[in-house]
Amino acid sequence: xxxxxxxxxxxxxxxxxxxxxxxxxxxxxxxxxxxxxxxxxxxxxxxxxxxxxxxxxxxxxxxxxxxxxxxxxxxxxxxxxxxxxxxxxxxxxxxxxxxxxxxxxxxxxxxxxxxxxxxxxxxxxxxxxxxxxxxxxxxxxxxxxxxxxxxxxxxxxxxxxxxxxxxxxxxxxxxxxxxxxxxxxxxxxxxxxxxxxxxxxxxxxxxxxxxxxxxxxxxxxxxxxxxxxxxxxxxxxxxxxxxxxxxxxxxxxxxxxxxxxxxxxxxxxxxxxxxxxxxxxxxxxxxxxxxxxxxxxxxxxxxxxxxxxxxxxxxxxxxxxxxxxxxxxxxxxxxxxxxxxxxxxxxxxxxxxxxxxxxxxxxxxxxxxxxxxxxxxxxxxxxxxxxxxxxxxxxxxxxxxxxxxxxxxxxxxxxxxxxxxxxxxxxxxxxxxxxxxxxxxxxxxxxxxxxxxxxxxxxxxxxxxxxxxxxxxxxxxxxxxxxxxxxxxxxxxxx
Length: 495
Description:
It is built from 13 helices and 20 strands. It is an alpha+beta fold. The chain has a domain at about 1-125. The relative contact order is 0.12. It catalyses: Thiol-dependent hydrolysis of ester, thioester, amide, peptide and isopeptide bonds formed by the C-terminal Gly of ubiquitin (a 76-residue protein attached to proteins as an intracellular targeting signal).
């Protein structure tokens, strides 16, 4: 590294005031809002060689004592640091930034911002996003959608799985509008009976009501509630975005059902076993059935699958309906969403040990089974099964297969109504080669513009960039950024 580069990285200071304590995530414990703009020289010297050699400095207080050399301006392309950097566990940066899924330099950049914020009277909390935000506004110019807001979300230690899903849901406009309306009618409930729905509605309201068009919002209240509600999401471990989405939608439904029951003067009826998971709930056949409450979450995301089984002995067809919030599809190398959906609805023969018990024959019989979509949802969420258990390895493996997902999708051979058409508006992307580490980002289409959301970072991208997240044509390819959850919105309005 050139001498002038090192010189830029060393901050000269005359004051000997102490640096404030730093919380997890690099945030300072701001004991004095009028902190001195200068920091002790002894704590601001920089040791660059460990980072240059790819080794972690011996000091555990990275954010305190080791301020890295940083570029003069952020890169113009979507920030995609090396996987090994983004997948560092939170413990690896103890005392510094706990920003899960970011690069080492990215985490230290956050720490530097916080230190500079305290030293300068906390005037520039988000220097990076301020620059990126102004770039985004400049890029959109007069085309910036009226009333729209593009805000990044602060990461609280491996919460990128949460942030990426929240961005996709925020730009699911019908869902967002229902949440905003709910909050307007129930915002006082949060003072006495806080729940996940109130916290989410509050977060979306904060974003939509910002005076600035771009910036960063802290989802701290929502994240804390998620961790309180479900121990699975506590700590700083890497979590699965699809599992979080399922958890969130089911929790919202349960809260709405309980509120509806309370309003009618009857106890809540939801139980964990009744929650909608991946197409495994609410049978509509076989006996007397009480119609479940249809909430606005159902209106947006719920579809109905029909599982048809035809006995090959008596030709009797048995149909069983199941509701779903998302479709989980098996994937193959060099395939497409259309082919995956075709395989999903292909006919399967049940024989040998898998024979079907026919009620008419009163015995086990060979049969043919087929799954199809009876009622497609307004918002079709498709989960690609990129993580598969490999028996020979004794562990899960990420499938980096190239799976093409089109901008416009027709549900041919999958639904009764072959004219169902959908448009892609969001993609949650998993970055990394492993199953227990990595990073999540999201791609969102808003008012005919595609945006890239990486926690606090937001920028505009070309539509052609979305194709880079299809996956790898070859197993050994270096690309590890793969589409994981796809969000399609119905175009016909008849769902």
